[in-house]
């Protein structure tokens, strides 16, 4: 990394103790932080965090989002809470986003709340992943993952299927590795001078 940063004209520091960590945190930039120090002083940065599929590979993203902004553990339950179900129904004007029918106009109509990214694909039970469908349209979905529903509901995000084979991500990783390999081979190793 140090060679890559040097090649890019970026400065960097090595952080091995509390004093150098404090200095780095004040000035910012690029740093190589000793793992033990990072584990103790920066656990929220280097520690694991829960995430879920978002249903689309966004530009610069990887198809995942952190769950820290979501209200509670209900995102990990399949069925939405009554309150969340009502939020989705209100947002969609109590009508099916596919055919536009409303239960108030059709006494035999059953309204469902559907996961855009299906539960089986680890789609969260969160408002941004739920949409209102009538029973007929819901039962007619085959497969149950239909990315265009996001656009029909007027929800933000891409209406493209997941890159299930990760080809886009893998291509970017390969491009990065090639860049780093070139940078390392072209820059001589740093020398240390004794005083």
Element layout with pairings:
Blueprint: H1 2-7, E1 12-15, H2 18-27, E2 30-33, H3 35-41, H4 43-46, E3 51-53, E4 64-66, H5 82-91, E5 111-115, E6 130-134, H6 135-140, H7 148-152, H8 167-186
What brief labels describe this structure?
single chain; 195 residues; alpha+beta; two-stranded parallel sheet; two-stranded antiparallel sheet; 6 strands; 12% strand
Describe the protein:
The chain folds into two domains: 2-48 and 165-186, no CATH class; 51-152, no CATH class. Mean pLDDT is 76; it is low at 56-61. The strands form three sheets. It has a two-stranded parallel sheet. Strands 3-4 form a two-stranded antiparallel ribbon. The protein has a two-stranded antiparallel ribbon with strand order 5-6. The chain is 35% helix and 12% strand. The chain has 195 residues and is an alpha+beta fold. Strand 1 (12-15), helix 2 (18-27) and strand 2 form a beta-alpha-beta unit.
Strand content: 5-15%
Secondary-structure element pattern, one letter each:
HEHEHHEEHEEHHH
Number of domains: 2
Low-confidence stretches: 56-61
The end-to-end span amounts to 26 Å
Instruction: Summarize the amount of helix as a percent range.
Output: 25-40%
The secondary structure category is alpha+beta
Task: Give the strand order, joined by hyphens, for the main sheet.
Answer: 1-2
